[in-house]
Design brief:
9-stranded mixed sheet; Four Helix Bundle (Hemerythrin (Met), subunit A); Ribosomal Protein S5, domain 2; 6-stranded mixed sheet; 23 strands; 3 domains; 19% strand; Heat Shock Protein 90; 629 residues
Length: 629
């Protein structure tokens, strides 16, 4: 029996490194205070696993046959929160060693013993007791730890306010667990939300839902325990044992969405690095899909303990993917929030990205309707990878789907495009803009339509960037129809295209020369167009530098101070141009040249640079036309 004299408290000072840790823990180590519960549950699960391991050689330690479990008890009146386990527990010396010292934390000492034993049976250890434990002081102004070592009769209590010292005292066994540890947090005034059932249940499910020990919750003194988790991680089960409903429910829990996933990717990687991944392609766009920070939301677990959902487990162009990665190759230590710097994570990121892209390729081939929905939801995001990910650019280009002039209501792949190319065609042509309707009406497409040449219609903002970076696809260059010469003369047509569009009468050539002189401050050149068949004029960019749409975006974003001068192309076969060229009045020609430039700007989706001058010239032209009626 323990006498009252034996129960005199022993006073101890924390080691210097512990005191420093407490200050760090409260003020800088963790940005989210909810993490304290994750740490305590991790420690409790660790204790249960230690018991399982030691009981292999000492069966009497778990002779009562009770299954491992973790209890979380809430008391709003106190207010307090208790985390209790029926694991290995601690003796007096172990308690001082584990809770008063970092260098010899409970888990570290246990792992040293495990390695020294050279046992082939690895215990699934979670956490590092003696480090994460101190996060309790972020929410509690006093912490009591009551523990009974398995196989021992004596019970000890460790108590501290986290301000430099702690006490250890023997307590009555009747007031303690039959085996294991009870951690009592006396909550601060601003931490009373942690006595709420729904708050705690959500934290448990989100952050500790898959530790290998069942967790039960008692919402108030005297209430029955309700099981929150069953101690089994879905991703550790064989795929054949998991139903679609279980996958869907798990997807909703990790994504916070209520739709059904389009697909899942579930695999275990073995070799140099071992990890399990369960990733989902959502059935709808996540609310933060277009967040400027473009963070991913895959959850990283180490030995089934949640670490972070900001570890950048996937490249940013796959940030819509939701799911988990669980590995035992990463350390669970104080620098977990900087864990993304680990080379292990780099390898996981590479492997996970490859598996997801391969899965999408299979979807595109075997489930075209599902892939069509996927591309409608996330195609604009995936195309960011064509711009950013040089290593996988070819793979992403094969995945990409586009609206084109040959199929405006359905999408086509670049492989489809190559299969329909004309004889003599050496480029994949595209046009980018803000809307499909605007692109369909663009005069730049007229010559291509006349020749039956397919043009990609690109309406996403990223479409103005990636073609320049991609350069080519399977040996065919990507070329904007709004840039440089159209080069249509060498491409076979579907039939008669109305003759040589570059052939111009002398009067038209004279008019072009006059317009070139008049507009020299606004355009780089005025020339005969080979791409126009109906419209009178259009603006194109020079062969080198950005195309028209990219230049507009860069200028609008302040990344391009001065835009380059465009080239004004004139349709020499247009009746309007031929009629204008026949007039030799100098004032009229000057007005006509400026009006043609303004018309080209309007067709390009811009406003005339000088609306008042545009209106005046138009009025003079109307007046002249009315005199001829």
């Amino acid at each position: 029996m323990t006498t009252n004299e034996d129960r005199q408290p022993e006073h101890h000072a924390f080691e210097a490194d512990v005191s420093r840790l407490l200050q760090m823990m409260v003020h800088s180590v963790y940005s989210d205070k909810d993490v304290f519960l994750r740490e305590l549950i991790s420690n409790a699960a660790d204790a249960c696993e230690k018991l399982r391991f030691e009981a292999i050689s000492k069966p009497h330690l778990s002779a009562d046959g009770s299954e491992p479990q973790i209890l979380v008890k809430l008391d709003e009146q106190a207010p307090s929160l208790i985390v209790e386990d029926n694991g290995i527990g601690m003796s007096r010396d172990e308690m001082i060693d584990a809770l008063g010292t970092i260098a010899r934390s409970g888990t570290r000492a246990f792992m040293e013993r495990l390695e020294a034993a050279k046992s082939g049976d690895k215990a699934e250890l979670i956490g590092q007791f003696g480090v994460g434990f101190y996060s309790s002081f972020m929410v509690a102004d006093k912490v009591d730890v009551i523990s009974r070592r398995a196989g021992h009769d004596s019970v000890w209590m460790w108590s501290s306010d986290g301000k430099g010292s702690y006490e250890v005292v023997a307590v009555d066994p009747a007031d303690a667990p039959a085996r294991g540890t009870r951690v009592v947090l006396h909550l601060m005034g601003d931490a009373q939300k942690y006595t709420g059932k729904w708050t705690i249940e959500k934290i448990i499910r989100d952050q500790s839902g898959h530790v290998p020990v069942p967790i039960k919750l008692i919402e108030k003194p005297g209430a029955d325990a309700v099981q929150v988790t069953d101690g089994a991680a879905l991703w550790t089960k064989p795929k054949g044992e998991i139903s679609k409903q279980e996958y869907d429910d798990f997807y909703r829990s990790v994504s916070g969405q209520y739709d059904e996933p389009l697909a899942n990717v579930h695999f275990r990687a073995e070799g140099r690095h071992e990890y399990t991944a369960l990733a989902f392609v959502p059935g709808s766009q996540p609310f933060d899909l277009f967040d400027v920070e473009r963070h991913g939301r895959m959850k990283l677990y180490v030995k089934r303990v949640f670490i972070t959902d900001e570890a950048e487990l996937l490249p940013r162009y796959l940030r819509f993917i939701r799911g988990v990665v669980d590995t035992s190759d990463l350390p669970l230590n104080i620098s977990r929030e900087m864990i993304q710097e680990s080379p292990v994570l780099v390898a996981i990121r590479k492997g996970l990205t490859s598996r997801i892209l391969t899965s999408l390729e299979k979807m595109a081939e075997g489930e075209p309707e599902t892939f069509g929905k996927f591309w409608e939801l996330f195609g604009a995001i995936v195309k960011e990878g064509i711009y950013e990910d040089y290593e996988r650019r070819g793979q992403l280009l094969k995945l990409a789907r586009f609206r084109t002039t040959a199929s405006e209501d359905a999408t086509r792949s670049l492989s489809d495009y190559l299969g329909a190319m004309k004889e003599g065609q050496s480029s994949i042509y595209y046009i980018s803009g803000s809307s499909l309707a605007q692109l369909k009406a663009s005069p730049h497409l007229e010559g291509f339509r006349a020749k039956g040449i397919e043009v990609l219609l690109l309406t996403d903002q990223v479409d103005s960037f990636w073609p320049t970076n991609a350069g080519e696809f399977e040996g065919k260059t990507l070329k904007s129809v709004t840039q440089g010469q159209a080069d249509l003369d060498d491409i076979s047509s579907n039939g008669s295209d109305g003759g040589d569009k570059s052939e111009a009468s002398q009067s038209v050539l004279d008019f072009i020369e006059v317009s070139r002189r008049i507009l020299k401050d606004e355009v780089a050149d005025v020339r005969v167009s080979t791409r126009l068949t109906e419209s009178s004029v259009c603006l194109v960019a020079s062969e080198h530098g950005p195309d028209r749409q990219l230049e507009k975006i860069l200028q609008g974003a302040g990344r391009l101070q001065t835009a380059s001068k465009p080239i004004l192309e004139i349709n020499a076969q247009s009746p309007v141009i031929q009629s204008l060229a026949a007039v030799t009045n100098d004032e009229f020609r000057e007005d006509a040249a400026w009006l043609l430039l303004d018309e080209a700007l309007i067709l390009d989706g811009d406003r005339p640079k000088d609306p008042r001058a545009f209106a005046s010239r138009q009025a003079r032209l109307f007046a002249l036309a009315l005199k001829q009626i």
